Amino acid sequence: MTADPKLPIESGPVPVHGEAQQTITGFLEPKALDRDAAPHTGLQLWLHRTSVFLFVLISAVAGVLLVILPWTPEWTDNYLLLSYPWLRTLISTGFFRGLCSGLGLLDIWIGFWEALHYHDRQ
Fold this sequence. Notes:
The chain is mainly alpha-helical.
């Protein structure tokens, strides 16, 4: 059976976001859960606060290391690079050191952005 191209196409109701929708297979999809809208319990709140604090701390420490470490002698004069002289010349270039420092500044900025925009849902 083929559809007649002259007949108008019937369209069903437009699905609303968040409501249960019937799929092509006939099963119902569950309602979309908005986890940020629900208030946290006491333990969930402290776990969330701790995870945000650890994220900010790790981002800040890694960022500071990436900003400072490429410009120190330990960056190129280490045991790991002795057997790879081509890699030592690559990472000792100013471009690569600047790239690492730029990533460090970006990492610091992301961590503090997260800290400044954190809000408790109580």
